[in-house]
Structures are given as C-alpha cells and as structure tokens.
Amino acid sequence: MSSQPDHRLRALAHTVRSKNAGPTQLTIDLFFKDAQGYARAAASPALSCEAVALLYQLAPAQVQRHLLPELGAMKFSMPRWICAGSPGDGDVYGAQQHAPLLDLLL
C-alpha cells in the first residue's frame, strides 16, 4: 500500500457527473471534498480548457470552464459530438460523458 496521496480526480472529488444542457450541449460538474482538492484542481493544467478539449476531441475555444470556489466546484460546458437522441447517440442523457476525467492526475 502506497503512502503517497492519490491526486486523481476521482480521489479529490466527491461528485463527478455529466448531463445534457439541451440537445447539443454537455456539462460536466466537479464537486470537491475540500478546499485543498478544489485549489489543486483549479490550478491543474490537466483541467485547463485546452487539456479538456484535447481529451474530448474539441477545439479549446469550444470548452468553457467555470470556477465556483464558494461551492468548491468546477463546471465545464462543451458541445456534444452528436445531438441527443439522434441515430448513433449512445448516451441520450449525457450521463456517462464524465468518465474520461476520472483518472486524470491533478
């Protein structure tokens, strides 16, 4: 067992979720366990608009990041690859789109 702290997003946040914001937009919400985890995440290059855009194969300008320090939370907004409910959409509610972020090292 390692004595090193776990700095993956899944360890620092108590809630990581995604959902549709209309049929063409996706939001990802990150709620952190404490102020230290929030501060680490807010300063991490792994959660910059550029890094998240690369992870979701979008242009950096398509990703908006909202910092909510009073809530210990961050929110990302971005376009969906495919309109919700269209043929080929495998996640009509956008509820599984947060998964690529879970193992990010912050």
Radius of gyration: 14 Å
Q: Which stretches are low in confidence, meaning pLDDT under 50 for 5 or more residues running?
A: none
Oligomeric state of the chains present here? single chain
Distance between the termini: 20 Å
The figure for the number of domains is 1
Largest sheet: 4 strands, antiparallel
Number of separate helices: 3
Mean pLDDT: 95
Class of secondary structure makeup: alpha+beta
Give the ordered list of helices and strands. Answer: HEEHHEE
Q: Which percent band covers the strand fraction? A: 25-35%
* Shape field: elongated
Q: How many β-strand stretches? A: 4
Tell me roughly what share of residues is in helical segments: 10-25%
Q: Numbering strands along the chain, what is their spatial order in the largest sheet?
A: 1-2-4-3
Structure description:
The protein has 3 helices and 4 strands. It is of the alpha+beta class and 106 residues long. Strand 1 and strand 2 form a beta hairpin. The longest helix is centred in the middle third of the chain and has 9 residues, at 35-43. The chain has one domain.
Walk me through the topology:
Layout (H helix, E strand, L loop, with lengths): L8 H4 E8 L4 E8 L2 H9 L5 H7 L8 E5 L4 E7 L27
Antiparallel strand pairs: 1-2, 2-4, 3-4
Describe the structure in brief.
The chain has 106 residues and is of the alpha+beta class. It has one domain.
Please describe the structure with a list of short key phrases separated by commas or semicolons:
106 residues; alpha+beta; 19% helix; elongated
